[in-house]
Amino acid sequence: MTLHKNRRALSAAIGLALTATVVAGCSSTGGAQDTGGGSGGNAGTADTPRVTIAMVTHEAPGDTFWDLIRKGAEAAAAKDNIDLKYSNDNQGPRQATLVQSAIDSKVAGIAVTMAFPDAIAPEVKTATDAGIPVTVFNSGKDQGLEAGAISYFGQDENIAGTTAGQRLTSEGAKKAICVVQEQGSVALEARCAGAKQGFTGGSMENLNVNGTDLPSVQATISAKLQSDPSIDTVLTLGAPIALTAVQSIQSNNSNAKVVTFDTNAALVDAIKGGDVQWAIDQQPYLQGYLAVDQLWLYLNNKNIIGGGQPVLTGPSFIDASNIDAIAELAQGGTR
């Protein structure tokens, strides 16, 4: 292919990518959705050189929220002719080691979460010093950009938490617990801090649980409900924890209501059935998609989405008013 044709093909591919990104960012239901197979409904593959990009997250495999992030990343990789190397570890130092391994293997770009910024920020700087562009997503909004990442995709956790607290106030809640399933996670702590700030109608306290052991989570929430029957709201920070909280409430004949951050297909069913009142959605599929697509755009055309400012994918509410529109997408694995 001649240089002229190469440029023309690149321009066309970037145009398609930018159109998809704008549609995704503006859609009230979260952007590009999977309409067949695992490719997110992509019409074709970019005619640009194949490169390897590493995605390194801080969560264990099998978590339904992170499955959505990975699916979005894989959809972008398929469209952009990218070989995506996905790895994860929920311990900051070990996650940092995975980032360093990606740097050592000379990947073309790195997409990383920063739930533990003290461990990951030095690796982000090492990557950028080596000429490897980095996108940060889901957590580490401020720390990632300060460390040299070109973009951040996710929600502002404090804003999301404040929004949740304000809604609880408007709904008349009086005593709530905020269930933290991973101690030390800056994103989760910020959610609870924001919720306390926005919840002016009563009191809220944190309840730490071991999110990797759901029977233990159920027992801990049950014990709290038994010790304080005045608790009327359980605010959880992830869909699996919310569903476990429902079990705790039912087994203790509590009248407490469950509200949560983040969704999965089972959580959507729980909202439809009235077991969970509402969820704050940060669009994980979109986060994974944009984190990868941004790297492709930068590598091929030096585009930066957001102009160096965080690109927010949430918060928005999923509740009885819009659950039917979301349910089909959730069953398809993209919401």
In short, what is this structure?
With 335 residues, this protein is an alpha/beta fold. The protein has twelve helices and twelve strands. Helix 4 links the parallel strand 3 and strand 4.
Please describe what this structure looks like.
With 335 residues, the protein is of the alpha/beta class. It has two domains: 3-41 and 48-154 and 284-314, Rossmann fold, CATH 3.40.50; 157-281, Rossmann fold (3-Layer(aba) Sandwich), CATH 3.40.50. It has helices at 3-26, 64-80, 92-104, 117-129, 141-147, 157-170, 186-198, 214-227, 239-251, 265-273, 284-301, 323-331; strands at 51-57, 82-88, 109-112, 134-137, 151-154, 175-180, 203-208, 233-236, 257-261, 276-281, 311-312, 316-318. α1 (3-26) packs antiparallel against α11, α2 (64-80) runs parallel beside α11 and α3 runs parallel beside α4. The radius of gyration is 20 Å and the shape is elongated. The two termini are 40 Å apart.
How would you describe this structure in keywords?
alpha/beta, 2 domains, 6-stranded parallel β-sheet, 12 helices, 17% strand, disordered N terminus
